[in-house]
Specification:
- By secondary structure, the protein is an all-alpha fold.
- The chain is built from ten helices and two strands.
- It has one domain.
- The chain has a two-stranded antiparallel ribbon with strand order 1-2.
- Strand 1 and strand 2 form a beta hairpin.
- Helix 6 crosses helix 8.
- The longest helix has 28 residues.
- It starts with a helix and ends with a helix.
Amino acid sequence: MAKSSLLYRTLGAVLLVVAVVGCVLLHPLLYAALFAAGMALMINEFYRMSLGSGTHTAVRAMMIALCVAFFLACVIFKLYNVDGKWLLVAFPLLAILLSAMLFDRQERIVRLTVQDICFPIVYLLLPFAITNMLMFDSTGAYSPRLFVAVMTLVWMNDVGGYALGMAFGQREKSCKLAPEISPKKSWAGVAGSLLFTFLTAVVIYLTGIFDMPLWQWLVAALIVVVLGIFGDLFESMIKRHYLQKDSGRIVIGHGGLLDRFDGALFAIPAVTVFFILAGVI
């Protein structure tokens, strides 16, 4: 069973890598469509955990439409140099969303007002919108190479944490990272994440593809490890709060998209902000 589980996890990860990298490199509109669909699925996964299935359909649909429309607008405006004032179109969508809430007669309407409106915007839309800035170089041209490099750091962070965590972190006397939140997370996994991510950062620097000093890649690697682990634990807290084992079943061997990209939701936007402050983008 362990070998079968590892095979499914590996297959699911490979398919995701191919889909993400392929769409990002082929065309900016493919990237926009893939990420918009991914965000919509993640929002739906969150609602499945927080509200259950088949409830508040109008509110869910409008929330997904609002977030997807805003994200796509950010991409298209950047690609075609559209005036940012057109983002004001989001306000009618928000008004329709609030109207849907007003006429929603199902229970838990109070929770919808606070948690289910604000949380997906902060937890999902904001990271996607910030990450979008990583797809364009300092001249404003679409250049996803830097995103692919950062995404590689994120993937190697996951690989290192899983490899050393399974090899050394599941032993009887191994030190756990946060057993009350995620019983399987261990300090051995943290060491694996650090090792794999820092080595990957050094390799990316040595390729000479990017005109960036080594220290910037090492800082980016550290951000990926710290925020990646935090994002993983944060999503585990959400699942525990809603008494869910997985956010979904869409990814082979990994559960839902939130399960697979929980760390990336924190790590990649943070690296993007660092690159902006450092003058990389």
